[in-house]
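This part of the workshop introduces the protein records we will be handling. Backbone structure tokens are a discrete shorthand for how the chain folds in space. Once this layout is familiar, the rest of the handout is easier to follow. The record below serves as our worked example for the rest of this section.
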Amino acid sequence: MKKLLISCLLIAVNTFVFAQKVSPKFNQKEVERIISTLASDKMQGRASFTPYIDKAANFISTEFKKIGLKTFNNSGSYLQSFKMVQPKTIKTIATWNQQPLNENHIIAFTSRPELKINETSGYEKVFIKASDNFFTVARQLIPGKKNCLVMVDSEHAKKFDRLNYLKEYLFKSENSVVFVLTNEEPKTFSIEISHEIKELKLANVVGVLPGKKLKNEYVIFSGHYDHLGIEKPINGDSIYNGANDDASGITAIISLAKYYKELNNNERSIIFVAFTAEEIGGFGSQYFSNQLDPQKVAAMFNIEMIGTESKWGTNSAYITGYEKTNMGEILQKNLKGTNFTFYPDPYTEQQLFYRSDNATLARKGVPAHTISTSKMDNEPNYHKSSDEVKTLDLTNMNNIIKSIAISAGTIISGKDTPTRVDASQLK
């Protein structure tokens, strides 16, 4: 009887130890359920500012709640809401050193219906010189952290009008930034602009898995949940479902949240965020990034378009901005012994590092990269109504999500910390 009890005890101990070593599984049926919901015709392409993107946000929120994630900053809601404005210029009257100023030489970024300023208004004067990178400087000023009068050297005349593309949607702000194409600093000036202002609402979806010993250090997993909505019909289909772009990324985020919650050993806190409005300017990631201290973010995994095979086939993906930090090296080290490979971005001429939701935090020095498999030189369904679940390789996609989870392990545990991006070298 005594020997029997000892044997049973040993079996129980071995079973417990084995159970402790077994990681949670990634269920392909769950992957299919999530992506099929997000990319269904019922979501109508998840365009920003439509009821359908709200429907998608509610679905993601429900998934986060089922998993048991906390809300960001204990807000009580997974929705991180913010406002945008859409200004339409109605009338412009201006003088510069008491001479009429061409209205085409003025572009104002403002939330005010009526903007009237002159030399006594207290606007800070900023100069964009001929030798400056025009859009780099302009992007730094446009968030409207203070009132600015920006004088743009005439060498940038051919680029000046392109500022209007950045003006279609603006964050709601009390401050205004006025660009004037001129080489002459004014002693006196008067600018009066009337706008029709339309206020719009957006929301990111954010869930948090608090860390243990390093709970004030963060690892971010992100993707964008918006797409193009209803567009010009192709073969009779006008719904641009965005299955690969980027319901695949959001499916990965939800799957990873469930995995790390079940694993329950993350030393660093993990933030899972589904960004809105990526397709119209990356506004969701811009807003989110401004709510964080970038020095506390150890790494950001932005996941976009992982539903198709990469140019190297299955069991592979690429990392944008691979050379800017050693994060890719860490991920590949953690995958030693597997058949999965992370490659550097093969499409550097397309500037993908700057075109996705990783860019805002990367510009603040965070090792923030996008993981993708999309063949950007030959992805047949990109931004088309044919981007549907049936075109994706869900088995490979499930393996990619699993590989991301494994490769991020030492960063989440705090054992590894990627080197920072040299923000001074970014565009």
About this structure: The chain has eleven helices and 18 strands. Residues 243-263 form the longest helix (21 residues). Residues 25-82+201-425 form a domain with the Aminopeptidase fold (CATH 3.40.630.10). The radius of gyration is 25 Å.
